[in-house]
């Protein structure tokens, strides 16, 4: 054994070992992430991140391979913190947290085993690797609002009559919706990724790098607003013959290509000259004893295996019985499905009438990958027929006003209920359910929604009073009584 541990290993062997270890130990999380890259055009560029990282390492290899390898075992502390973060995401089936933690673990393992000097030299590779994580879709609602605001303002400056209702924009002869695909999230993420890479390769002064990255963030937002305005104008001037179907997506990608070209052209004006390469002493020896590497690598592997063992144990739980919601609220068996929420694979689903309002509730016994209370695919109202006009936070619940394509208005109030929390906040509920999972408890929960058509301010006032009385009740007892 001592002879084996005394053997020498080089930097390339260690990097391959670390990558293989990470891939094997987090195979399920990595494959789930790759599936998102494959099915989502927004994150298709993530397939290029690993090849780019390999290129960047090759570009700096002559300097990297002569730096000393000195494991930094203090990195076991942040590694443990990220493993707990990963447990949060995996047990609560919060893909964003799980994937962020999974891909952050590889740079931490590299830093731990290779040491400070090499990690500092390859800092951008470790940072750029994180663009593999398919994050950013939480920005879509805000980007839709910004695009709608910009488009309406530009149309008004043009002198064309325009009317906006939520995310719907009406001009003479046509009605447009600022849909998810029109939010510009694809352009923003792609622009930021390319902007960071361009800034690193082109500039060596930090203030230039920061300014160009900020430029790569602002430009696609402004450009997407101009693109949306252009699509409306093309459709309006052509009597709705052009830019109203799939062709406007083609215009969008061509426009984005031009924007990226402009961004790089402007950035190249202030390009920094290449720094002089430093001569490396020929007698430097990059090989280190295997024992030095095994200490750091094995410490990381042990921590990861402990976390994964706890993960398996925490998932062996008993599911609770479903609460009797029908008896709790004495519902009438009449429902209006035109606005009705859409929740994926609930344990129980209820719809009816409650005190002159439409009532809807779903219950989940536990969170799984395709069946969970908080999910991006769940809808609190039918988004294909209705759009949000405004939203007001209340104590313990949220008020929404939504509008249909034919001009009807509807008010809606909702909240989520778990044994530990009653709140309309997605983030609070997700974090609470993650804590439940870590404690080995089922992540059961309900979504409660009431809604009513409104025609005037008196209707709105009456619904607000009903919503306040409804959600002032402590509905946690409904769940806690069934545990």
From TrEMBL:
Principal cellular location given in the protein's record: membrane
Domain Methanolan biosynthesis EpsI: 300-477
Topology of the protein relative to the lipid bilayer: Multi-pass membrane protein
Pfam family, one: DUF3485
Transmembrane segments: 42-61, 73-97, 103-131, 185-204, 210-237, 249-270
Protein localization: Cell membrane
UniProt keyword terms in alphabetical order: Cell membrane, Hydrolase, Membrane, Protease, Transmembrane, Transmembrane helix
The protein, known as: Methanolan biosynthesis EpsI domain-containing protein
């Amino acid at each position: 054994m001592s002879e084996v541990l005394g053997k020498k290993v080089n930097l390339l062997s260690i990097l391959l070992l670390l990558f293989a270890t990470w891939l094997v130990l987090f195979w399920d999380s990595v494959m789930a992430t790759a599936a998102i890259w494959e099915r989502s055009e927004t994150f298709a560029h993530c397939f290029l991140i690993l090849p780019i990282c390999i290129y960047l390492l090759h570009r700096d290899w002559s300097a990297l391979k002569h730096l000393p390898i000195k494991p930094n075992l203090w990195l076991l502390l942040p590694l443990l913190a990220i493993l707990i973060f990963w447990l949060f995401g995996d047990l609560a089936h919060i893909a964003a947290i799980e994937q962020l933690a999974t891909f952050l673990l590889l740079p931490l393992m590299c830093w731990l085993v290779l040491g400070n000097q090499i990690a500092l030299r390859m800092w951008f590779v470790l940072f750029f690797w994180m663009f593999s994580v398919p994050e950013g879709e939480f920005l879509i609602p805000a980007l839709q609002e910004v695009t709608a605001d910009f488009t309406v303002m530009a149309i008004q400056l043009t002198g064309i009559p325009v009317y906006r209702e939520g995310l719907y924009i009406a001009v003479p002869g046509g009605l447009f919706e600022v849909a998810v695909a029109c939010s510009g999230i694809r352009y923003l993420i792609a622009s930021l990724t390319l902007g960071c890479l361009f800034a690193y390769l082109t500039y060596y002064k930090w203030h230039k790098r920061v300014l160009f990255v900020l430029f790569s963030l602002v430009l696609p937002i402004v450009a997407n607003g101009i693109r949306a305005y252009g699509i409306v104008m093309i459709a309006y001037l052509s009597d709705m013959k052009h830019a109203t179907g799939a062709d406007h997506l083609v215009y969008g990608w061509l426009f984005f290509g031009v924007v990226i070209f402009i961004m790089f052209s402007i950035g190249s004006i202030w390009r920094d000259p290449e720094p002089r390469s430093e001569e490396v002493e020929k007698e430097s020896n990059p090989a280190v004893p295997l024992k030095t590497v095994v200490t750091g690598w094995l410490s990381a592997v042990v921590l990861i295996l402990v976390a994964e063992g706890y993960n398996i144990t925490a998932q062996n739980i008993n599911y609770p019985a479903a609460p009797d919601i029908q008896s709790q609220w004495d519902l009438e068996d009449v429902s209006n499905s035109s606005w009705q929420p859409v929740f994926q694979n609930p344990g129980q689903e209820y719809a009816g009438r409650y005190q002159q309002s439409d009532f809807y509730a779903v219950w989940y016994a536990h969170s799984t990958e395709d069946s969970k209370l908080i999910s991006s695919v769940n809808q609190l109202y039918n988004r294909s027929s209705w759009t949000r006009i405004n939203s007001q936070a209340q104590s313990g619940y949220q008020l929404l006003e939504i509008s249909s394509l034919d001009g009807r208005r509807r008010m809606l109030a909702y909240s989520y209920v778990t044994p530990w929390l009653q709140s309309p906040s997605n983030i609070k509920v997700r974090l609470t359910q993650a804590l439940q999972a870590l404690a080995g408890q089922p992540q059961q929960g309900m979504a409660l929604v009431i809604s009513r058509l409104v025609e005037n301010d008196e209707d709105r006032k009456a619904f607000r009073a009903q919503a306040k009385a409804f959600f002032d009740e402590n509905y946690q007892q409904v769940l806690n009584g069934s545990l």
